[in-house]
What we know:
Shape: globular
Strand order of the largest sheet: 1-2-3-4-5
Radius of gyration: 17 Å
Oligomer: single chain
Structural class: alpha+beta
Number of domains: 1
CATH topology: Aminopeptidase
Amino acid sequence: MLEILPAKIEDSELLLTFIKELAAFENFPYEISVTKSDIENNLFKSNPDAEAIICYVNKIACGFAVFYYTFSTTTGRRGLHLDDLYIQPELQGQGIGKKVLSYLSKLAIKQKCSRFEWWALKTNDPAIQFYKKIGAKKLDEICVFRMEEIEISRLASKGI
C-alpha cells in the first residue's frame, strides 16, 4: 500500500539520507553539501523555499520528492518545479514514481500552475526514458545555466 505524505521537520534526517542515496545512485557529478540544518531551515520555516513529500510502502519510507513554485512571464502564471524525485532502487519499476508525478500534477492543477517541469541528468537514461513514456517533452531549445557561490561573488563584486 502506497502513501504519499507531506514531509515534517522530524523527517529532515530521512530526507538527508534519501538525498545522499539519490546522489550516489545517479553518480551526481557535484559535491553534496546539504545538511540536516539546511533542510530544517529551508523546507520547514514559516515561508519555506521548497516543499517535500515522502513515499511510504506498507508504512516504510521508500522515497521522496522536493518541489517549489516558479513564475513564468510568458504565461503570467506560476509553475511547479520538481527538484528531486527518488524511489529506492529495489522499489523502482512498480509505478511509485508515476504515482508521485500524478500527485504533483494534481497539486499543480490545484495551484493553477501553467507548467510542471524538472531536470534530469543527461546520464540518467532510465529516468529520461520514464519521463518520455509518461508524456513529458524534452526541451531542446533551452540551455540551463548555473552560477555557484564563487561565480556569484565574483560577478557581484564587479559592480556590473
